[in-house]
């Protein structure tokens, strides 16, 4: 597997509250993107705890059978949630902090993906597929038939998420399985708020390396406004695989 990660503060934010991790753990790979809650205290602390805790627990749990990946991610995300919540409870300066997370354990066959909040996973091959479903207010409204996907893009509450790490005692990730025939992309909403799915797919298909892919995605998000921190982690099979 080849991987690359990149995070950028964007144009309009003073600090970067996102965190990103790509790691090789034995024969598996771990990708994590966390988006510290914008406008909340210490979002950068929350996202850093999330990536650190998830890496530590996943690393201590591998190698494992593919059937165990979901349980490993569930355990890691639960531990990260408890750690963030404890810090926020113990330190008044950190009160209210939280973070989204999207994480993937990848082996030679497929990726097992977990998400909390609205950070996303995409798979791009001949087309682009959004692997994860946002845990957000507008997604709930879409599923209830109250708004369309087009209306959701401009909805005044499109950034309201229904779950995050650290703000409650318990958290319930959603899990997905995805074959890796093309490029796997994990990202914060700083990318998807500024760059359409079709343009993401175009960039991924046109750039010759993962480094250039990540750089162009971030650059395009900044060109289009850079209203939030922008974070991407990309993964594709090596040619010899």
From TrEMBL:
PROSITE patterns: PPM_2 (PS51746). Keywords: Hydrolase. This is Phosphoprotein phosphatase. Its EC number is 3.1.3.16. It comes from the Archaea. Residues 3-237 form the PPM-type phosphatase domain. GO terms for molecular function: protein serine/threonine phosphatase activity. It holds the Pfam family PP2C_2. The lineage of its organism: Archaea, Methanobacteriati, Methanobacteriota, Stenosarchaea group, Halobacteria. CDD domains: PP2Cc. NCBIfam families: Stp1_PP2C_phos.
């Amino acid at each position: 597997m080849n991987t690359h990660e990149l995070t950028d503060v964007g144009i309009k934010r003073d600090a970067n509250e996102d965190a990103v991790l790509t790691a090789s753990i034995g024969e598996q790979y771990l990708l994590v993107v966390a988006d510290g809650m914008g406008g909340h205290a210490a979002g950068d602390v929350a996202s850093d705890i999330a990536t650190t805790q998830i890496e530590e627990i996943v690393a201590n749990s591998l190698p494992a059978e593919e059937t165990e990946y979901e349980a490993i991610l569930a355990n890691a995300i639960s531990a990260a949630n408890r750690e963030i919540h404890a810090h926020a409870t113990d330190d008044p300066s950190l009160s209210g902090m939280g973070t989204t997370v999207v994480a993937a354990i990848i082996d030679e066959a497929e990726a097992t993906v977990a998400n909390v909040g609205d950070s996303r996973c995409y798979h791009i091959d001949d087309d682009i597929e959004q692997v994860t479903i946002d845990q957000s207010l507008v997604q709930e409204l879409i599923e209830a038939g109250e708004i369309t996907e087009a209306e959701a893009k401009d909805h005044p509450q499109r950034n309201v998420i229904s779950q995050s790490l650290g703000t409650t005692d318990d958290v319930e990730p959603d899990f997905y399985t995805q074959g890796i025939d093309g490029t796997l992309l994990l990202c914060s909403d700083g990318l998807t708020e500024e760059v359409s799915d079709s343009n993401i797919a175009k960039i991924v298909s046109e750039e010759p390396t993962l480094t250039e892919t990540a750089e162009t995605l971030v650059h395009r998000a900044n060109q289009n406004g850079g209203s939030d921190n922008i974070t991407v982690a990309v993964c594709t099979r090596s040619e010899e695989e």
